[in-house]
Amino acid sequence: MLSRLTRPQALAVCGLPVVALIATAALAPLPFSVTQPGMTANVLGKNQGTPVITIAGAPVRGTSGQLRMTTIEATSPDTRVSLSDVIDAWFAKDRAIMPRDSVYPSGESTKEIERHNTEQMKESQNAAAEAALNYLDLSDKNVKVSLKLADVGGPSAGLLFSLGIVDKLDGDGSGGDLTGGRTVAGTGTITADGKVGAVGGVALKTQAARRDGATVFLVPKDECSDAKSELPKGLRLVPVTTLKSAVGALVALEKGKGSVPSC
Predict the structure, then answer these.
(1) What is the pTM (predicted TM-score) of this model?
(2) Rounded to a whole number, what is the distance in angstroms from the first to the last CA of the chain?
(3) Would you call 16 helix, strand, or coil by DSSP?
(4) Which of 17, 114, 167, 180 has the smallest set of CB atoms within 10 Å of its CB?
(5) CB neighbours of residue 252 within 10 Å
(6) Taking the CB of residue 144, how many other CB atoms lie within 10 A of it?
(7) Parallel, antiparallel, or unpaired: how do β-strands 144-147 and 96-99 relate?
């Protein structure tokens, strides 16, 4: 025979399954990755003691500014992300939650993901070199470009690689630095014909850029709104659609003449 429960007792008993569900949800792994600002690297300089850009077959000019490619860091595909992790990141400006499948291709092992990212980086470097040489009307039969950047994968450094090559070979077209001596950062894929493509995590990349001294950030035009969402103070956004438009914007900034686009 069951005894009658008082209202407080009934609420307590009914609440137990709810508490258990909440506790389970808080601890259960979720299909997300936590991302944060990653490292940046000056493509005009060295990375781990090795020049990022090496050019043979044409005169190379010295540079004084910086062109910093930007990255984000994400929890590994094997890391368990819980509801509490998601809630913490939701309220943090220096972290973001992204679907794991948008960061790591579904169903692939860590080694397969690393191999995929390495292949994307290699393809991006080839396209970046071709885009820069096409822009400068130079032949890859005479000018050889080598790009090396350790511990970074994916295609999002393409635009900065191309700008670095242009700066080393031609600068602003009149002997000056393409950067105007500034620390310029940015992100964006590049195709061989010079088109700039969108990437992910731009709001976090702007934070990485400002942290490492950048005052100008080149962003794919379609991602202006994302870049503005958490824009650090002192960082100027410059939207670009092509390598030519990126060079034009930097030259206009350097010389103080012409129109510099803004988001």
Answers:
(1) 0.83
(2) 72
(3) helix
(4) 17
(5) 17
(6) 13
(7) unpaired
37-76+117-255 folds as Ribosomal Protein S5; domain 2 (3.30.230)
Contact present, 161 and 194 (Cβ < 8 Å) = no
Helix (H) or strand (E) holding 21: helix 7-27
For residues 3-31, average pLDDT: 48
- Six-digit token string for 44: 């005009």
Scan for tokens 């914007």, then name that residue. 249
Residue ranges per domain, the chain? 37-76+117-255
Question: Could you tell me how many residues make up the chain?
Answer: 263
29-83: per-residue pLDDT in tens?
A: 567 888 899 999 999 999 999 999 999 999 999 999 999 999 998 887 777 777 8
- At position 137, the amino acid (one-letter code) is D
- DSSP-derived secondary structure for 93-123: TT-EEEEHHHHS-TT--HHHHHHHHHHHHHH
Question: Which residue from 87, 237, 75, 250 is spatially nearest to 174, judged by alpha carbons?
Answer: 250
